[in-house]
Amino acid sequence: MRRVVVGAVLLVAMVGVAACGGSDSSGGGTSSGSSSSAGDANKHVNIAHFVAIQANPVEQVIIKSAKDTGKANNATVTTFDSNNDVQRELANCQDAIASKKYDAFILKAVSGPPLIPCARAAMAAGIPVVVQGTALGPKQTTDPQVPGIVGSAITLSTTNGVAIADLTNKACEKTGAKPCKVIYLFGPVAFDYASITRKTFNDTVKAKYPNIKVVAQAAANFDPDTGAQQARQLLQVHPDINVIVNDSDPVAVATEKVVADLHKNKIITVGAGGSAVGVAAIKAGKQFGDTVILPATEAKAATLMAIKAARHQNVGDTTIDVTADLSPVGTIVDSTNVDKYVPEW
Questions:
Q1: Cβ contacts of residue 284 below 8 Å, gap of 6+?
Q2: pLDDT digits over 141-187, tens only?
Q3: Which residues, 6+ apart, have CB-to-CB distance to 200 below 8 Å?
Q4: 286 with 252: CB under 8 angstroms?
Q5: What is the Cα–Cα distance from 90 to 11, expressed in whole angstroms?
Q6: What is the model's pLDDT at position 101?
Q7: Which residues does 173 contact at the CB level (< 8 Å), separation at least 6?
Q8: Which residues, in sequence order, are CB contacts of 165 under 8 Å at separation 6+?
Q9: Residues 106, 116: contact at Cβ < 8 Å?
Q10: Alpha-carbon torsion, ordered 50, 196, 119, 12, to 10 deg
Q11: CA distance linking residue 187 with residue 29, whole number of Å
């Protein structure tokens, strides 16, 4: 019953927006372009921060960074945890709108397109919206896909997927294998970031790297125990594997232990996420490389954007692909640049 009510309320808000002739711009769009008054310059503001799943270690860094950024800029950031449930995120959104407590929203969607009604409903209520983490719409782009959105600070899953494919190719070149046989362990299919990363990885390998043969794929769901179990089973079926690719560093570390236990020392492992454990594994020679993710930087950029929008200030750059635009080493970290890279989780 709760889901039906939430959907109905959001639908009414969407109809109201259309009836007003595109009043989306009365929310985030107008505030981002208007001049700041003296009274707004350091006005205390309240920001609602919607996250995908608070239990995830990356999300915890994001939450802390957003709160710290708010504290440093006279803003209070309140976290709304969706627990990887789109309907729960929609319900959280409607509750936050109804409370009339918040001056801006930071929307980190579990899945982009289903959360569009949340953004429209917030803007219809006069609340500017900043998109963080996951693109809010069907396209993987930092450009706003909903009229009136203030801007985006996004870690594009397509950028990550291409980086994993490029890194896998580098690992395959090191093995010298022709073809290079690969196992790919991926994250939760319900999580847009993981599913689009996987699709982009497969598409990029097919288009750019004919020497790479992905012989098996399995869901590890960002869980090290599941990843270790999948790796062990798949290596029994495919004992001649050259590279194991993981879209999560904790899973990569788990598969490295499996490889060592099975004495398959010629197998190279690849990780993703640019974490402290991934960097340590690269430095120790256990992991070939990693893709970069900067969760604290992402959250800081989105929070500053939201604070400025809430104060009717110009928010500056509104189309940020965090890894591509803000990383000090680019999208890949390996032995050649690991000393220049500082992990954020």
A1: none
A2: 999 899 999 999 999 999 999 999 999 999 999 999 999 999 999 99
A3: 157, 158, 160, 161, 162, 165
A4: no
A5: 12
A6: 98
A7: none
A8: 200, 201, 204, 205, 208, 209
A9: no
A10: -120
A11: 34
Count CA within 13 A, CB hemisphere, residue 51: 27
| Residue 218 backbone dihedrals phi, psi, to 5 degrees | -155, 150
| Residue of 245, 249, 216 lying closest to 233 (CA atoms) | 216
Asked if the model's pLDDT at residue 40 lies above 80, the reply is: no
Q: What is the pTM of this model?
A: 0.81
Q: Smallest Cα–Cα separation from 102: which of 69, 133, 79?
A: 79
CA atoms of 151 and 315, how far apart (whole Å): 8
* CA distances in angstroms from 211 to 138, 184, 196, 201, 344, listed in the order given: 31, 15, 23, 14, 33
Q: Both tokens of residue 2?
A: 């709760």
Average pLDDT of the segment spanning 215-223: 96
pLDDT at 86 over 70: yes
Residues in the chain: 345
For range 63-87, the mean pLDDT = 95
Q: What are the Cα distances from residue 32, in Å, to 23, 129, 170, 334?
A: 15, 10, 42, 38
CB atoms within 10 A of CB 239: 10
Please answer whether residues 245 and 270 qualify as being in contact, where contact means their C-beta atoms are separated by less than 8 angstroms. Answer: yes
| Other CB atoms within 10 Å distance of the CB of residue 313 | 20
Residues 279-306 have a mean pLDDT of: 97
**DSSP tag of 177:** -
Range name among 6-10, 35-39, 120-124, 126-130 with the lowest pLDDT average: 6-10
Which tokens is 232 given? 């062990």
CA 244, 250, 254, 260 dihedral sign is positive
Predicted local distance difference test score (pLDDT) of residue 9: 36
Residue 309 has pLDDT above 50, yes or no: yes
Q: Which residues pair with 246 in a beta bridge?
A: 185
Pairing of strands 289-291, 332-334: antiparallel
Place of tokens 């960002």: 222
Q: Tokens for 178?
A: 């022709």
- Residue 30's identity, in one-letter code, is T
